[in-house]
Amino acid sequence: MPIVIGYDKAEQNQIEMTVAAPIFKEDQTVSNKTYSSVSHTVRNAREKMRAEIRKPFSIGKLSVALYSKDLAKDGLVKILNPIKRDARVSNRCYLAIVDGKVKDLLESDFSLEEEKGVFLKELIDGKIKVGHLPRTNLHQFGYALHSEGMDPYLPILKLHNKNVRIAGLALFKDDKYASEINLDQMRVFRLLLENVNHGTYEVKLDHDSYAVVENQGSKVRYRMGGSSEKPEVTIDLKINGAITEFSEWRLTEQDKRKIEMRLEEQIIDTGKSLMHTFQTLQIDPLGIGDFVRSKTRNWNNAKWERQYPGMQIHIRASVNIVESGITKY
Amino acid sequence: MDNTFEKKLDEQPESIAAKLQECAKSSDFQNKTVHPYTISYCKPLIDSNFLHRDILPYLSGNSDVSLNELYQSIPIADKKLSRDWNEIQENILRGYVAIQFDGQEHECLLVHASMPKGRDVNSPEVEFSVVGPKEAFVESLDMNLNLIRKRMPTANLRVKEMIVGSLSKTRIAVCYLESITNEEFVNTMIQRIEDLDIDFMPDITMLVQMIEDSPNSVFPQLIETERPDRLTQGLALGQVGVLMDGSPSGVIGPAKLGWFLIAHEDYYLPWHMGSFFRVLRHIAILFSVLATSFYVAILTYHYQVIPNNLLPTIVSSRINIPFPPFLEVMIMEFSIELLREAGARLPTKVGQTIGIVGGIVLGTAAVEASLTSNILLLLVALSALASFTTPIFRMSNTIRILRFPFIIAAEVWGLLGIFICGAFVLTHLLRLKSLGIPYLVPYYPLRVADLKDSFVRLSYGLMYKRPSYFRTKDPVKFHPGKAKIKKDIDE
To answer: What pLDDT score does B82 carry?
Structure first.
């Protein structure tokens, strides 16, 4: 009854499947034992694994599926197929890319108390709920994969000193791994993608002083301009923030204005460089194409693919500091 | 009236005096001569104080007066003259004293002298309530009718008495409100009772099983209640009530499923609380029927639906249990039914001990002996508890029984089985009728206005109409427009 399954690339175009099978003990603790098997197809690998496992192999509780980066570079559709076909696998199952070998990650002792699958699930879950990881799961991956003018993204997990951490976001061109962005870029990426009401942002001011702004609620809106031949998209971002840390003694009104401005600049800078990367790689994880499609009659995907790299995408951000804590200064 | 004893008498027509002498073969039957009269009575049935104080002195003081004159003058209201042997016999067996005048061999004066018997009115034990009247029906029909009449001093209240049972001669009274109740219900009820052909009728529960629309259904279709307030309120809404001599409960019909889940106390609490308790009770019933079958289905087939964090708890609590979930559940259900049955059969004091022994000792022992898991123990105990929330005893037994088909279906087909079984139960409920009205009303057929008094109970101001499904002659309880608005004292 695995909660996490991992897939690696094996020789001769084969797949190595690794399963961390939970072992329930009488004192309500759980440990894991990993099993691996190699085959051309996922289901056959599962079948082979049955030879080693005493209890029936049942996929129903699968919560996290991991894919190695090498495998993702070749495309995920082939491996995802059996999961998408199986009614027992929840659509809310998380998919993630592993930087390195999945088998190594699953065999290491990164989780001391919990079952490994539960640990990974809660790690991703927590980062979506209160962190900077954009919403993602099997359903959304499939939606982004199959809809026109949209490309999927997945979180990257990395084994680091016996700890698993989220290392960034993997961007896909169709089902193939194309590029990745780091954690800082991911923060801005999430702001541009969806409405968020949590998360903190560090603002660097001039003379080596820093401020931390907590997001109290951000709204993002896409607007369309230009002509149908030459569409332009403006991404409007409004953030209500609260200052939770400031490295100076006093926080004046001017400081507040300055922090607002700086944060706006930071977001716009990062956003622009992100958009530049996306356009150069011809990937569209924000789903701008999908948005344009909703505003355009006679949508033509091939034409859009030609337009996208050269298209004007403006980013406007406005930060509004609404709160600066209970101290007077 | 067709017992052999009497037939034999018919064959040899004799004078009444001779017949009464014949009756005296039964040793509780007395013939006494107070010259010039002979009095005959059945000793256990009459009040001997009354006989000695009021009848005998009067007779000895008025010797040589004929029966007719005696009839005129004796200061007792309930009296009659009769020449009909059947009537005389019947009345003697009901506690009358037969007075004969020497020489008038074919006539009798019957004087009522029966002893008021039976226990006093007690507080209800099956349908106990914290607030509200604390009266319950007793075994005497007259006392029960008295309880009803007291609550409804209106000439509208009609009581039709019938006699059922060739041996028991049980008096059965059908009561209804002339100006409100639909005659169809009254006629159906009366007809069904009249059509009964039975020798002995010890209790009204037996009667109910015979006159229900579908006697083979596990669901009761007429409400048995021991609360006079419930019965009278039923009458006021347009239901028909039935009472039986010798039975401490009344029956009201037609009934819908919802009525069985209603404690009458709901009407005595403010509507928010009444509604809350009703919703609670509905949930409890669903839980009681379905909890263990879901346990079986999920652990046997659908482990996916168990949350990740609950998984270790469930798995580790079941790790030592050698049985599949189905057997585990059956063992537990069996033992809890056993406990309940033992508790019901034993005297009250011992019953409490059984409860403690069952609850604490058996439960822990079963878990320690790894026959069941903690979780199941909890579920079974909770569902047993939940089934006690049903106020009508017969309905709570139905719920007790109903869960077993569900458990079996869950074992065979998992969740699908539960739904199939649920569909069967639902179909059955849809087909059921009570005195001709659909059992699932007001949910099906949907009567939106009657939802006010269903799984919730809204305030009385809104319920100014009688339930439409009773098709009453007078559909309105009171006119809401005429109700006075309560004014503030300052206005």
So the answer is: 84
Whether residue B116 contacts residue B47, with contact meaning beta carbons closer than 8 Å, is answered with: yes
Please count the structural domains in chain A: 2
- Chain B within 8 Å of A26 (Cβ-Cβ)? yes
CB B137 within 8 A of CB B273: no
Whether A105 contacts A95, CB under 8 Å: no
Residues A286, A144 within the same domain: no
pLDDT at B375 over 50: yes
Task: Specify whether A154 is located in the same domain as A192.
Answer: no
Say what the pLDDT of residue B482 is: 67
Q: Which of A164, A181, A198 is the last residue of a domain?
A: A181
Determine the pLDDT at residue B378. 87
Element (H, E) at B99: strand B96-101
Please tell me whether residues A271 and A153 are part of one structural domain: no
Asked if this assembly's ipTM is beyond 0.85, the reply is no
Which residues of chain B make contact with A25, given a CB cutoff of 8 A? 316, 319
What is the rounded distance in angstroms from the CA atom of residue B373 to the CA atom of residue B376?
5
Q: Among A65-74, B9-18, B224-233, B277-286, name the one with the lowest average pLDDT.
A: B9-18
Give residues with Cβ within 8 angstroms of A314, minimum separation 6: A232, A233, A234, A235
**What CATH code is carried by the domain that includes residue A237?**
3.30.300.210
Domain membership flag for residue A328:
no
Q: Which of B304, B309, B316 sits opposite A24 (nearest CB)?
A: B316
Among A120, A150, A181, the domain boundary falls at A181
Task: Say whether pLDDT at B377 is over 70.
Answer: yes
Q: Is B316 an interface residue toward A (CB < 8 Å)?
A: yes
Reference B399, options B261, B269, B213; nearest CA is: B261
Identify the pLDDT of residue B131. 87
Do A110 and A159 meet the contact criterion of CB atoms below 8 Å apart? yes
Strand partners, A242: A214, A323
- What is the least distance, in Å, from the CA of A26 to any CA of chain B? 5
* CA gap B188, A95 in Å, rounded: 67
Q: Is residue A144 domain-shared with residue A205, that is, in the same domain?
A: no
- CA of B309: which chain A residue's CA is closest? A118
- The closest alpha carbon to B204, from B187, B190, B222, B186, belongs to B222
Distance of CA B229 to the CA centre of its chain: 13
Model pTM score: 0.80
A200 closest CA partner among A184, A177, A220: A184
DSSP per-residue letters across B302-352 = -GGGS-TTTHHHHHHHHTT--S-HHHHHHHHHHHHHHHHHHHHHS-HHHHH
Amino acid (1-letter code) at residue A321: I
The rounded distance, in Å, linking the Cα atoms of A262 and A197 is 20
Q: How buried is residue B48: exposed, middle or buried, by Cβ count under 10 Å (0-12/13-18/19+)?
A: exposed
What element of type H or E holds A70? helix A69-74
The number of C-beta contacts closer than 8 angstroms across A and B is 39
Structural domain that includes position A196: 184-323
Q: Is A101 on the interface with B (CB under 8 A)?
A: no
The distance from CA B250 to its chain's CA centroid, rounded to whole angstroms, is 5
Q: Do A24 and B304 touch (CB under 8 A)?
A: no
Distance in angstroms (rounded) separating the CA atoms of residues B97 and B93 = 9
When pLDDT is averaged across residues A158-171 and rounded to a whole number, the result is 90
Confidence (pLDDT) at B1 = 45
Residue A281 domain flag: yes
* Cα–Cα distance for residue pair A188/A186, rounded to 1 Å: 5
Which among B304, B308, B319 has the least Cβ separation from residue A24? Answer: B319
Phi-psi region of A282 (alpha: psi -120 to 50; beta: other; left: phi over 0): left
**Contact across the interface for A121 and B319, Cβ inside 8 Å:** no
